[in-house]
Structures
1.
Amino acid sequence: MPNPRKKSDSHDAGRQHLGTVYAKALLGAAEKAGQADQVVDELDSLVADVLDNQPRVDAILTSPRLTHEERLPILNKAFGGKLSPTLMTFLKVVSKHGRLDSLRAIARAARKQLNTIRGRVEVLVETAYPLSNPIRDRITARLSELLHRQVILTTRINEELLGGLVVRVGDTVYDASLAASLKRMQQVTLEHTKQTIRDSIERFAMPT
Amino acid sequence: MKFNADEIASVIQAEIEKYESTIDVREVGTVLEVGDGIARVYGLSNIMSGEMVEFPSGVRGLAFNLEENSVGVTILGDYLEIEEGDEVKALGRLLSVPVGDAVLGRVLDPLGNPLDGKGPVATTETRPVEFIAPGIAGRQPVREPLQTGIKAIDAMTPIGRGQRELIIGDRKTGKTTIAIDTIINQKHSGVKCFYVAIGQKESSVANTIKVLEEHGAMDYTTVILSGASSPAPLQYVAPYAGTSMAEYFMYNGGHALIIYDDLSKQAAAYRELSLLMRRPPGREAFPGDVFYCHSRLLERSAKLSKELGGGSLTSLPIIETLEGEVSAYIPTNVISITDGQIYLQPDLFFKGIRPAMNVGISVSRVGGAAQVKAMKDKQVAGGLRLALAAFRELEAFAQLGTDLDAATQSRLDRGYRMVEILKQPQFQPLEVVDQVMIIFAANSGALDEVPINRVQAFEKEFLQFMRDVKATIRKDIADKKDLSPELKNTLTEAINQFKASFVKHVSK
């Protein structure tokens, strides 16, 4: 069975790094103007609503055939007046450097950095069955308490877990799923049984 | 044997009943790219250098390169099952291998998994593969000999327990044979032996194991095999893994011998890894820390102080040179790390001088302190190196075809016979007392009248004679390990007695 996580998680480390640098600059400028949250929201919506829905816009923006000068009027026409001035200027700067193809990485990095600044943390909770809202709230509250930060909860359904839940905070995984527990039980039991048999083999011999 | 299924079921049931579920906390990352035995992993933000990771297929890896955005992992096993996007789990511990008496007599891979089909390695003890060498306070100078059983080596480049003696030479000059002879000779010395085969043909390793088995040497020997078909990361860790298994005996007050066959291939594997990891190449494209790679390995061979139990780990690294080029990068590195080298030359080998040791440039810097007194005696091996060097010079001079005076001719004759005495067939190590007696005999001129082609027959029969007829003298030397003037006299008498009968026998 293909793993659904694979596509979304396929990274390009170089682009990721690039995104981090641009995002830092963008947040710096936006914070000065006091509109960091707004800018990041706009950038997210630009990526999600425009680029993902209109592949042709994406193609035009990232095409290496267009020079910066040719792209400027397009940018102005398409987004002028709809985006905050900071983001608009930022897009032009990114275009000037020919990095519009990294816009997704920039948006991801900007969201992450803003979360860190605001003391928020993204947590992914995987469960075998959909969570009801009260349980969701309880999990969020409990995690916020444990992590001492405001938790932005994302949930995903993964039937392979059988039961229980898996919590991912950054690179750390807290696996309390039934599947992992069963697997570990199998390993431990096998190992111990093997050891017991090896230690006292005559106990297991069939009487002849 | 048949197993009782009910009994096994009851054990499993008991295990399940007492099993306690805990939350599994792990640090994870995602495979960005994989190939040629390495993987680049995104994530794993808190991993430490050298920490073990696990791929979904169960294959282990080592965090090798910590970069700003990714972690370079060397894969210790089959990397073809790993895919981009796989989740990698940090295990939070260092690579370690099983150690203890259970590893003796086994053929293992560098991770300690059995390759000989004799079942699992029954031990619970493990040691980390990378271990810091003992410091100066924990050491003492070498003082006990490690007998290789090879006349030329024990006489002229003696090896002490805790020494690192390099065996260097071109291909097909008998490097491995010296190592194998040394292992075979440890049968009654209690020294545990470890043979690390790196990047070799599996067929030659199979042969080596067969030879060891035939001589009963596998009882105290472990073979750590990472053949030519193993991926580079396994070849790279093999010597460290073997050293960990050998160190166990050293730190428990025992004595161990480890052979790295050979370190040039390990250096090449390390070069492959480093280049794949994009570490900058240096001389001969080796990475900058290839010296450290070998020095930290060989530093782990030591003679421990009395407080630490006085155990020892002797190592015989092997380096293969190309066309006798000892000034290449890796040979010079390892020569400078070790406490001496045994240099083998192809021309000597083809002349029939085997072991094909070049006496002039082979040295043992510390082993002299550990040599048995009887061997060190002026009339035995004390002046042998210089005498042979003088002989070589004389021999070259004599080839000019000038007429030689009687004194020079007799020195030449003595030299030819000494060279003949130092020849030794493979897999026939000699006890040190036999070595002392025959070298003493040759030095005292007993062989001067024996035709050169009969010298080896003389040696064989003489040693047999000493064993059968003059057993008390032999025992005296073996017990005292020293040649007193009286002992020398009785030995000379015995030699003369044998010589008389041998010459009569030959002339008949």
2.
Amino acid sequence: METRKESEWIFKVVWAWQDEREEKWLEEQAAQGWHLEKVAPFFYKFLQGTPSRVIYRMDYKRTTDQDYAEYRDIFTLCGWELVAEMANWHYYRISPENSETPEIYSNDHSKAQKYRRLLIGLVPVMVIFTTIFNPALSRGLLNARNQGDAWVYQAAIAFRVVIFLLLVYVIIRILVKIRRLESGKKE
Amino acid sequence: MTGSRQQDLIRRTTPLTEASFYILISLAEPLHGYGVMQKVMELSRNRVQLGPGTLYGALTNLMSQGLIEAVDGAGGERKKLYQLTEDGRLVAEHEVRRMEELSRHGHMLLGI
């Protein structure tokens, strides 16, 4: 008899510096029998299966990098399954063989590099946001200002400031994380 | 190689992390990324475990520092083979001597 698999999409807001919390959450879902299937911005698709101990780890790597195939190979050979990829975030999982928790990073030094790659990845996002949401570049908004609908123009500026501050906050949180990881002794 | 260039290289690249040191000495003969991981586990009897992220990151770093290089595998293999460069050997030898000194001093002062 064919078993029908239940699936569900869950909405959850997770920020870029909270990847460890996200991993833990995915592991809790797996323990309850909900296994990650797909990831979209702020949405996660789970398939229902057997509750099991699964370790999830997230890594940031640009898929357009020249050495991407080599990078993927190493993870696969080490037994990590790539479950989903979203905006250069890679969701890996592994079923541990014993009580030890497998890690994709064995020291803080190399873990900090992941967040360095993430910071570089955020640069284009920063550039795109500051140009697209630049009211001075939008003719419609300039018209609104000239025709006396000043509040539309002001709202656009306010929106842009909020987005910008949010990005700055994200970058600060990631920098703090890098700093903490790199301040530890090497090995 | 001039003395000051050597000194500069050593200052720039050391001390190596334990992971990087093991990767470097494993590459005295050409190996694939996965081969490096197996060799390191075998050498250290599973004490030094290299996660794929760490292994990959260390290979990239060592490569950009010029301590290892990619070589073409026999028969046009798809996977990259890595091996130690001259600079890499120099750095690894320097680290071995440094750790020998650490160990000697430890023995001396602790009386073991």
3.
Amino acid sequence: MESGRSRVAELYGRYGPAVYRRCLRLLRDREAARDATQEVFMRLVKDMARLEDRENVLPWIYRVATNHCLNLIRSDRRHGEAVPSDELSLAAPETSDYPTRSLARDVLARFDEGTQAVAIGVLVDGMEHEELAQALGISRKTVERRLGRFLTAARKLLIGAGS
Amino acid sequence: MTARCPSDLSLESHLLDPEHSPIAAHVYGCARCTERLDRMRREGEDFARNVFPLTVDAIERAAARPPWWRRPAFVLPLPAFAAVAAVLLLVRPAGPPDDYVGVKGDAGGLGLTLFTAGPSGVAPLRDGDSIRASAAVRFRVRSSAGCHLWIVSIDDSRTVSRLYPAVADRAEWIVASEQDLPGGAVLDGRLGPERIYALCTPHSLVWPAVESAVRAAAARPASVRAPAPLSDLPPGASWHSLLLEKRP
């Protein structure tokens, strides 16, 4: 990073990579992740005090970036734009074939963003319920309720798809 | 290494401060986590090389930009505001304009008008109007008091979509006035009814609460066309809705 930059630029240099990685993971597209990173950080810098809070800043950044990218995916789908073919894969590519990933995406798309964030956090990111609750700013009970609802509905959908 | 691997968020924390990382012992002995960290570092380098230089100026400008209520356009001297208000009161017609669209659910002085481009130019849509399923629409809201505004929609599959603000987690504050909102929305191309809501609350309402209220109002089959009133909203909330019938 360049020296002599403003405090904002320093914070961007410090936390920008985390935002970029999160966006890259969800959007699976470098250009889209770059734009999303800029948009997310333009929102984050509106609350500099929170951005300076080293102890608690990362879950907040994670939450804002996750919500922003899920919303972008939803908006792209809603507007009929192309989305990367393996975006939001629920399982590692080496352990699932394309139809499985596609089915997983279709299942995920049936849920609201709050539930999507929980499903991705637990099933994709492998987060503990407590950790995810903190990152998303919701209670652990809500995480468990949303996950339960997602899994129940997903099982029904997958059984239906398999029959 | 048999212990459960940490999440991406934990690894982010580890990357920021490896010396005080509670997961250091795990990641240094775990081939999978080492691989994940290597990938994250490469992505971080990609950010430093290809993202930071292109975007940092915009970030700095955004940080330096004062909130809208402190911008010069909003800091006119009070007498100037009073004069403008007086002129508006004198010239404003007593009744609603010709293109005013009265719609269901009027409460608290909130109105919503949608516009779309037709054969004879941009025209307002009336409750129940048919519209091309992939048409672009713009919103005009009229509020008698400042409030936090959401514009959302629900279709007959009970999919709730946020239209304004399009990407934020919280409602956008609007001043008491009639105003055209920036941006707009493009309908999703699916045929069938879609109800558009304008929802104003004195305090900002988070998206899950909005989504839940709108979905609950359309709980019965086919109730997008005749929804129940929105419920579970905070005191002082007002809402307005408009039905569109999306056609080929």
4.
Amino acid sequence: MSDTTQNQSEGKTSVDTFYYDNQIVRMFLIACVIFGIVGMTVGLLVAFQLVLPEANFGLQYTTFGRVRPLHTNAVIFAFVGNGIFAGVYYSMQRLLKTRMFSDLLGRIHFWGWQLIILAAAISLPLGLTTGKEYAELEWPIDIAIALIWVVFGINMLGTLIKRRERHIYVAIWFYLATFVTVALLHIVNSIELPISLMKSYSWYAGVQDALVQWWYGHNAVAFFLTTPYLGLMYYFVPKAANRPVYSYRLSIVHFWALIFIYIWAGPHHLLYTSLPDWAQSLGVVFSIMLIAPSWGGMLNGLLTLRGAWDRVREDPVLKFMVVATTCYGMSTFEGPMMSLKSVNAIAHFTDWIVAHVHVGALGWNGFITFGMLYYLIPKMYGTKIFSLKLANTHFWLGTLGIIFYALPLYWAGFTQSLMWKQFNPEGTLVYFNFLETVTQILPMYWMRAFGGTIYLIGAIVMVYNLIKTAKAGTFLKNSQAEAAPLEKGFTTPKGEHWHRRIFEAKPLRLTLFALVAVAIGGIVEFVPVFLVKENIPTISSVQPYTPLELHGRDIYVREGCHNCHSQMIRPFRSETERYGEYSKAGEFVYDHPFQWGSKRTGPDLHRIGAKYPDSWHFYHMLDPTSMSPGSIMPPYPWIYDQDWDKESTEVKIRAMQTLGVPYPEGYDQQALADAEKQAQEISDRLKQQDQIDMAKDAEIIALIAYLQRMGTDINSNRD
Amino acid sequence: MKIIKQLFIFIGILMLPALSQAQDASQSYKVEMVITLIIIICAVALLILFVARRGKRSVMNANDGAEQDTGFLSARSGEEHMGFWGRLWSHMNYSGSIQDEVSVATEHEYDGIRELDNKLPPWWLYGFYFTIIFGIIYWIRFEVSESGPSQEEEYKAEMAKADADVQTYLASLGNLVDETNVELATDQADLDAGQAIYEKNCAVCHVVDGGGSVGPNFTDKFWLNGGDIKSIFSTIKYGVPAKGMIPWESQLSAEQIKQVSSYIYNLEGTTPANPKEPQGELFERSGSAAEGDASEESTTEERAKEEAS
């Protein structure tokens, strides 16, 4: 029955003529390329800063702790972000046979996103940061991101409503899952209490903050760097190869399995930390189960090329896509392996992690983006690529760049981790001086910087090639297309696959189910950690920070110390012998935000308190090599000239009270006086013991107060 | 693709020596650098080989004659070119031949993209089941039956084993040095070793000539925690955490602490460039310890001056 009505109505319906908007695609592509080059250049700068501390230029705005977040934000949200939007706007119109819902929303989306990037580029070097990795941007920018993301979502959903294609293709499933999940992640992780225009405190503290942050951080990888790019792969690989997608049912199984399982795996970033054991186990288990769903995407991509492998040799687009998909397969196998606790005990906090993410970032995201650029620019300019030779050169420079980047860092990670763990037979650490394990791997850091340089050169070659290509053609602002509109009252014919009937004809339903699928994992992990007290055993001797220590902590956050120093001593002999008693969940209950860190370029700092005299810190922050000869830590001279922010003392204490830190009622009025008193004591001590003249108002005084307090409360009842 | 994959596997295998290498990392880092370079060179060579091979093949293919785009999916008759690995791969995936793909084709078409509906590759599917079973067993072992150790239990076991190992080792050495029985080392080799340890670890705070900066001055007669060899040994071993002197027990062996204590002991009476003011109590050495060598005695006058000022 339905078949005949369909045929009849098709006969009657006139075919619409409409235009795809290429201009919005080009805008995003240009932004993608520009920010790609900028982001990679900043990445190169931080790579050199690790071997040449002079490359910090002695300026607070260009010092590693502030520039490294600039690099990660630029490549993730500016380079990849704009790449996602370009690919989505191009493919969605064509897959749904309609122009995007609104040109205006598209432009608001574009300019809004670029303004957010600009705001990030200004605020991060200024030290305006929330101190949470990959979510560093402060609250007004967070709100802007949420709004612009909603604009993007409305534009997508509107386009779906006016589509001329009944069923939605797998690429669009991934786009929709991306949209809802990123919105969820961003909003939940960014709940913070503002105390001024550009300063806020995370709503969560300690273990809870860590769990939320790595649920976010891990799934930013999943739903910003993976699912949208899988969507792009599903569009551009079959298009470029002119081959059918290998398996529809594989698409269905791996799509749902991927989004459902991915969300649970966040705790694998917190193995052997103070996170409750059961949450860690969930992270391990779901990471392992993630292998097959991830590989489903790789297989569907690679097997789509069956019968087209000869073209892979000639076509740079396919070449890039193939290596990208292979890199995706590698890192999604490696990731679950690193989630096994025994492997994680070696890999975590080392450069192995950095190598791992760069195989994903340079290989998967970078190469898919390059492939897409080589496909789209000639297409939209109605011409052929300017130089195949240059494109091939770029391919090889990129591939070599990845190898030269990743291999030395894998090596560095192994080496350093094993050095950390090596004991003499009499029970002492062989490399008890942390610095020894750093200088050992500096040559690897040099090679990594070299690999990064090659990769960047490749990208610059591409820019030249693309500009030349564009100049040779004429840009087609709008491409004409024809299709019949969807008829009303359609019922899916029997015999159709259930998934097609239930979801593919109903994009809104698919979106809602995707939201449910990703919500489950988060809820199961969060609720017990937030509500069940046993998960974070209280330690009675742990007290809130003094007002001066709070100021010092804000300086610690501002300078991005967590980029190189962890505050999490794991329960290993090699760590308790080196740093002291391992970290307990109850020690972090007043830490808004948590500062556990994820990489030890320098030693752990959780038990740094009371380890050295004040003067050690005084000299060390001024010139780290004076106390640790050969150190690669940059100097921090400006904290000796700047004063800690007295005026905000009151509001900071009140904010902490709002967040549940038990300062006595009315303490905000007393706080500044207490802070000044403590600062005076430190200043006097420096004077008396070491003849150091330092005004009590200087930031270094507050920082010393914080450093000397860190991790000491656990022992205070013994004294 | 296949070759790229093999290449990555090859590189992965090459990485393994890093494990053993790092165990023995006391050697100069140059060794590692050389090995890494060799590996990278191998990788690059392999890549070049790969390109050359592919290039040669594509030239040969080009000679095969004009290509023809036949079939509704424009597949090429790639099947014949498939080698052993290609066939195995196809077999493992349970995928039919390309010529037969019409039989698994769906009606779906999006912007010219068609979809096949091949079976799920069996190895992939069973792999998926396997990981799920692994997950269930893992969960039961660690969270339900709790027969697997929690991380705290793991830690305790690790520490207990290490303690036992260290005790066994120390027992095998015989006479143990500690703060109750330590004697001033007089052997020049010991003092040289002590000097090396001092310069590496102590000099940042106490200055290379013992004059003190962050930490106290060793050249005067005033000692905060006792100036006899046993006290110095104990101060180094256990530290004075309240004053910022860290304990060195876990970092230096008893023998090493003895060597550096003896070196520090002998610093008393030398003349540093920028002496820090004396701290602590005057500690007069008993006769036997005071018999230093000639050079030390010659500084008696200066010491007297210092004490006066």
